[in-house]
Write a structure and sequence with these properties.
Layout lengths: L2 E3 L41 H18 L2 H15 L8 E3 L2 E6 L8 E5 L1 H4 L7 E5 H8 L4 E7 L10 E7 L6 E7 L4 E2 L8 E5 L1 E7 L2 E6 L14 E6 L8 E5 L6 E7 L6 E9 L2 E8 L2 E4 L6 E6 L2 E6 L3 E3 L2 E3 L4 E5 H5 L6 E4 L5 E8 L4 E7 L2 E12 L5 E5 L8 E6 L11 E8 L2 E17 L2 E15 L9 E9 L5 E9 L10 E4 L14 H8 L20 E5 L9 H5 L7 H16 L8 E6 L1 H12 L6 E5 L18 H4 L5 H7 L16 E7 L8 H12 L5 E6 L10 H19 L4
Helix pairs in contact: 2-6, 2-13, 6-13
């Protein structure tokens, strides 16, 4: 337990809070459902439904897949398959593990190497598992979703791992025991673990026992389609035979049981995820579950002797208020015994938020955002500053308008790497750089000469190549003013000779949900498929400037995300959802007002919750956009809780079965906001049959309704594989990204 994302399910303590609980669902009355002529499309794998999908796909492919599209797709695929990309690694024992896809291995290779080999120009990789060969041998289109190692006994090598494989790229996985020394799966007939495909998680308890949360073999599921119980599975048992050790109510989101095997701090946890922002956590002591007494809206994590707390809302403890988004630490055993003595490690302000943290052996790394640019602090628990907090040192490694993250290499390595850390730095025009450093206690310069701090010795290990002429482009940050006066930051990436005449094809991207932050990131795909594409002079001959130009790429940091911590997220929850859409519209209007683009040249793109975002741009702000690319989206907010994993998002959007909540949900349900007589932007809706998170249904129904209404230029495409990502290999990913970018370019850069 060395790295924690700050946006991982921090959770409220009021069971009647409208924003956070499914309690009102049991109201006596259920909100009526509007007439839905497209319910038949909800049969995901029905013959008639897939025939409709096939017709739609053929129509869209006929439109988009021209010679220019083929060039765009080839350029993207070259980026994705490049052998010069950084092979990011995870250290386990003496080896560095990596999962790699390229042209020759589209499904990928799970492999490892030594440090000496990794830092060379041409590392020698030891292939453990070839997913393409496995898929061919077993006749299943496996998608690799990771591996979890059994911690070896002292002096032994890491040998056995539970490998997660999805048959179609969806969230449901088959978990199989793998022997990295023999490069084979452990035969179930000989006692090897092999769990049927289902949603859930697996954690090693010991060499012969797994802790499992699963919906396979008749184990109960929650209303959100996730595991409701946790079981202890011993070698040779089926899941149905395993001992149940934990259970949650059906209307909660999911149950997890997991074992922390850190030497000297071994312990087992169970977590009841009530919803996305509420959870209760138990610790197993003497075969009994001991509840960790903390409000459900406080995110907790354990590391060795420390218990860490990040409240989602202001938290009052013994007369002291700790701000939402702060980070606290307490001695775990002392806290369980009733002590409430905290060390305050971070307090947010109006500009700065905590995104994640990671422990090395002796130090704590905090990854922060200050106005959506990275800052990193290193804390030393062994030394106390004048305010009785841990000594803090800023890590000088973060250029402006970049995303830089630090995390431990291997905090349990006692042979010398325990205080090593990785530093991954990227920016819109800065290819990713991987650095490795070592932290040590020492003296650091200060205004008074020097003071106690943490010093770092570090060096660049790998640099990603440039995939477009990034030196020709400039990154700017601007702030739009939303409807309620809130300043909303956004990044603009454009040619250094950008002409502010309103004629630049502009792609505006956003998300705005679940406390997810959109930060600067290098993308060879955006560089090639958008920034470097050029309009023809003829296409712009009717405008003030007829010279050719490239695309402009914009990322909006709207409310609902995590860029400014929990308060930025909560500002757009449920009945306040409109603020996210007002923010995005304000950015669009600011781009138009500044002369960057115009309605005719402005398009927006978003996926998943971002698909809901751009669906609302389509229906509520059609006057601002010329084109909309809407991917794997939520769109039917009346029935979303009944489709795939939708029930789990009630905490984010509200419960449409509750009449009072449907009244505000209906105001951001794009499927119900379509009207005759409106000039809608050209629209491309894309999804995947195998998406078992959002599912393809809402995308299908939206496209069908728009087409039936006679709305022109509505296009739909549904990939068969790929799950919620819409693609399970580089070839599929290149096709997906090429379709979206090519659609937007055809509309926004054309002469019509």
């Amino acid at each position: 337990m060395t790295t924690t994302e700050a946006d991982q399910t921090p959770l409220p303590d009021n069971d009647t809070d409208l924003e956070t609980t499914s309690g009102p669902r049991h109201a006596a009355t259920i909100a009526p459902e509007p007439t839905d002529e497209n319910v038949w499309l909800e049969d995901i794998h029905g013959e008639e439904q897939l025939a409709w999908v096939g017709e739609q796909n053929a129509r869209t492919e006929d439109l988009l897949e021209d010679a220019e599209y083929a060039a765009v797709e080839a350029g993207i695929l070259e980026v994705l398959d490049s052998t010069d990309r950084i092979a990011m690694v995870n250290k386990r024992g003496d080896y560095y593990y990596n999962f790699w896809k390229d042209q020759e291995h589209p499904k990928g290779l799970w492999r490892r190497t030594t440090w000496e080999s990794y830092v060379s120009e041409a590392p020698e990789w030891d292939v453990l598992l070839d997913i393409d060969a496995l898929a061919a041998a077993e006749g299943v289109e496996w998608v690799f979703h990771g591996a979890g190692f059994l911690r070896p006994l002292d002096g032994d090598m890491y040998r056995f791992a539970m490998v997660s494989l999805s048959p179609d790229g969806g969230d449901a996985n088959r978990h199989r025991e793998f022997d990295v020394e023999s490069r084979t799966f452990v035969d179930p007939a000989a006692g090897g673990f092999d769990l049927p495909t289902a949603k859930g998680n697996v954690s090693w308890l010991d060499a012969d026992t797994l802790l499992v949360s699963s919906t396979a073999e008749g184990l109960p599921a929650t209303s959100s389609s996730y595991a409701r119980t946790g079981v202890k599975l011993r070698r040779g048992q089926s899941l149905a035979q395993a001992e149940q050790i934990f259970e949650i109510p059906e209307d909660h989101m999911l149950a997890i049981v997991a074992h922390d095997s850190t030497p000297g701090f071994e312990r087992t946890f169970a977590v009841d995820y009530i919803d996305f922002y509420n959870r209760r956590t138990w610790l197993l002591r003497d075969d009994s579950w001991v509840a960790i007494d903390v409000p459900t809206d406080v995110n907790i994590s354990a590391h060795r002797e420390w218990l860490m707390f990040r409240p989602q809302k202001d938290w009052d403890v013994s007369g002291v208020t700790y701000a939402a988004g702060s980070l606290l630490a307490a001695d775990l055993e002392g806290y369980l015994a009733g002590s409430r003595q905290f060390v305050v490690l971070f307090t947010p302000d109006d500009h700065t938020s905590l995104q994640s943290w990671s422990w090395t052996k002796d130090y704590l790394l905090l990854n922060l955002l200050r106005d959506v640019s990275s800052e990193i602090r290193v804390l030393d628990p062994s030394r106390v500053d004048s305010d009785s907090g841990w000594v803090v040192t800023a890590l000088d490694a973060c250029p402006p308008l970049h995303d830089v993250n630090a995390y431990a290499v291997d905090d349990e390595d006692e042979s010398g790497a325990g205080n090593d850390y990785w530093l991954v730095a990227t920016g819109f025009t800065t290819p990713t750089t991987l650095t490795r450093g070592t932290l040590t206690a020492g003296e650091v310069p200060s205004s008074g000469g020097s003071t106690a701090g943490v010093t770092s010795q570090h060096a660049v290990v790998k640099r990603s190549p440039s995939f477009f002429n990034d030196g020709d482009y400039e990154v700017q940050q601007h702030f739009a003013v939303s409807a309620d006066g809130t300043k909303v930051p956004y990044f603009q990436v454009a040619s250094k000779d950008l002409v502010l005449d309103g004629q630049n094809p502009t792609q505006l991207s956003g998300y705005g949900g679940f406390e997810v932050s959109r930060t600067p990131a290098y993308s060879g795909t955006i560089g090639r498929a958008w920034l470097e594409r050029r309009t023809s002079a003829a296409a712009l001959a009717d405008g003030p400037g007829s010279h050719t130009r490239g695309g402009v790429y914009v990322v909006a940091n709207i409310r609902g995300g995590g860029e400014y911590g929990p308060s930025w997220h909560r500002a757009a929850l449920q009945e306040k959802r409109h603020r996210a859409y007002e923010d995005f519209a304000a950015v669009a209007q600011d781009l138009i007002s500044r002369g960057v683009t115009s309605r005719r040249r402005l398009g927006c793109v978003g996926g998943s919750n971002g698909g809901l975002l751009v669906g609302n741009m389509l229906t509520q702000y059609p006057e601002l956009f010329g084109a909309v690319s809407c991917g794997v989206p939520l769109l039917d907010m009346r029935r979303y809780t009944k489709l795939s994993a939708g029930y789990s998002w009630i905490a984010e959007y509200g419960d449409p079965d509750v009449p009072e909540q449907w009244e505000f949900i209906r105001t951001f349900s794009p499927y119900h906001l379509l009207h005759d007589g409106v000039e809608y932007p050209e629209t491309f809706i894309w999804t995947a049959t195998s998406d078992d998170r959002v599912g393809p249904v809402q995308a299908r129904k939206m496209a069908a309704r728009m087409q039936a209404m006679g709305i022109p230029n509505v296009w739909f495409h549904e990939a068969l594989e790929g799950g919620h990502a819409g693609a399970s290999d580089n070839r599929q990913a290149a096709a997906l990204q090429a379709r979206s970018n090519h659609f937007l370019w055809r509309v926004l850069a054309g002469s019509n």
